[in-house]
Amino acid sequence: MMQEFSALDGAILIDKPAGPTSHDVVDAIRRQFGIKKVGHCGTLDPNATGLLIIVLGRGTKLSEKLMSDDKVYEGAVKFGETTSSYDADGDLVASLPVPPLTLEQLNETAAQFVGDLMQTPPMVSAVKIGGVPLYKMARKGIEVPREARLVHIYNFRFSAYQEPLGQFRIACTKGTYVRSIAHEMGQKIGCGAHLATLRRVVAGKFDVAQAIPLAEVLKLPVRELEKRVMPFLKLAGGQGSGIVK
Fold first, then answer.
1. Identical fold, 10-68+204-236 and 71-202
2. Is residue 167 classed as helix, strand or coil in its secondary structure?
3. CA-CA distance, 95 to 101, in Å (whole number)?
4. Domain map of the chain by residue range?
5. What is the predicted pLDDT for the residue at 3?
6. Is 45 one of the catalytic residues?
7. 107: Cα within 13 Å, side-chain hemisphere
8. Is the pLDDT of residue 242 over 60?
9. Annotated catalytic residue, options 9, 45, 70, 87
10. CATH number of the domain at 71-202, please?
11. Beta-carbon count within 10 A of 46 CB
12. Which tens digit of pLDDT belongs to each residue from 98-112?
């Protein structure tokens, strides 16, 4: 007998604002609409914005499938300042003068990251060791060894530079820490750097242009929400990751 699905078994694309965690978004939708099972496909840091795939009901069974897709981000790197978390949320660790830089020089450095890359998760991250998230250890001043992970960078280019900010676009596999790349770029250039802003614009075959701002979603009546949900069966039969290289 074929299993019947409700209109709320599927996924909805959210344009996450800066501030809330991905888990905050899940909680807000669960509370607002009284849906028992709600999850997300790929964490965005609190100050990161953009595409967050929220799975509802039986759609949560597809979270791993959707999470494994490639991603595209846009953002800005601030040169001359190193932070504890490698992004704007952390404490300032060092400040150095920024050397004269051109867009060409930035792209030459960025090209060194393209391809397979072994990346060590930052201490300020949600990765768990012994069941404890690294960021909780970092808050106590504890640093522990982390295992490097293989990621792949398809493309990484800067489109504009106005000292000290460089605007970039990067296409990468899941689990890539873009703030670690910003940090390492600063080390290569010699003045330090951190990730100033980050916005996820593509995840697999989905684009942020299809997403609805979180504030608008939370105002929808349930019947309107149902119209915005991509059905489980459509998602389950979805195509592969259509990354833009």
1. yes
2. strand
3. 17
4. 10-68+204-236, 71-202
5. 60
6. yes
7. 10
8. no
9. 45
10. 3.30.2350.10
11. 17
12. 999 999 999 999 999
CATH class of the domain defined by 10-68+204-236: alpha beta
- Tell me the torsion sign for CA atoms 126, 129, 135, 136: positive
pLDDT digits (tens, 9 = 90+) for 48-91: 999 999 999 999 998 888 888 999 999 999 999 999 999 999 89
Residue 187, CA distances (Å) to 76, 81, 86, 193 in order: 16, 11, 11, 7
With beta carbons less than 8 A apart as the criterion, state whether 124 and 177 touch.
Answer: no
pLDDT at 2: 47
Residue 152, token pair as written in the block: 């792949």
Give the residue with greater pLDDT, 35 vs 233.
35
- Number of helices (H), then strands (E), belonging to the chain: the values are 8, 15
* pTM confidence score: 0.90
56 neighbors 10 (Cβ within 8 angstroms): yes
**Pairwise pLDDT comparison (136 vs 173), residue with the higher score:** 173
Give CA–CA dist 205/203, Å, rounded. Answer: 6
Look at residue 157 and give its three-state secondary structure. Answer: strand
Distances from the Cα of 7 to the Cαs of 4, 127, 138, 146, 229, in angstroms?
10, 33, 42, 42, 7
